[in-house]
Design goal:
There is one protein chain. The chain is 9% helix and 25% strand. By secondary structure, the protein is mostly beta strands. The chain starts with a strand and ends with a helix. The protein has a domain of 69 residues. Strands 1-2-3 form a 3-stranded antiparallel sheet, with no helix packed on it. The protein is elongated, with a radius of gyration of 17 Å.
C-alpha cells in the first residue's frame, strides 16, 4: 500500500483520491466512521472517492473518510490557505506599503 502524502499547510497525513467527476480530492488518511466520503481502490491501485447516497450506500469494500479540507487546522496566520482563499485585507495592506 502506498504511503500517504502530507498536507503542505498543516502536515496531516492525507490520501489523494479521484472523484466520480474525475477531480482530485484530498481525504484524511485514516478512515472515519462519521465521514461522508466513501473511498476504495480500483484494480490498478488508484484511490477513488464518491459521496454515498440512499440509492447507492457504502459498499463492503469501501471505507468512510473525511475530506481533508474539513479537518485542516493550519497555523494561525495561514488559516485560509488550505481552502485556496486569500485574506483581502492582507493583500490591500501589501499594496498600501508599495512605494
Amino acid at each position: 500500500m502506498p504511503a500517504p502524502s502530507y498536507c503542505r499547510v498543516c502536515g496531516a497525513a492525507i490520501r489523494w483520491t479521484i472523484t466520480e467527476a474525475r477531480k482530485r480530492l484530498a481525504v484524511d488518511a485514516a478512515p472515519d466512521p462519521s465521514g461522508n466520503t466513501a473511498v476504495s481502490r480500483d484494480g490498478r491501485g488508484t484511490w477513488l472517492s464518491r459521496r454515498p447516497t440512499g440509492d447507492l450506500p457504502v459498499a463492503p469494500y469501501e471505507r468512510l473518510h473525511t475530506p481533508h479540507v474539513a479537518t485542516c487546522l493550519p497555523p494561525e496566520p495561514e488559516q485560509t490557505r488550505c481552502l485556496g482563499l486569500i485574506n483581502l485585507s492582507e493583500v490591500r495592506e501589501q499594496e498600501d506599503d508599495r512605494p
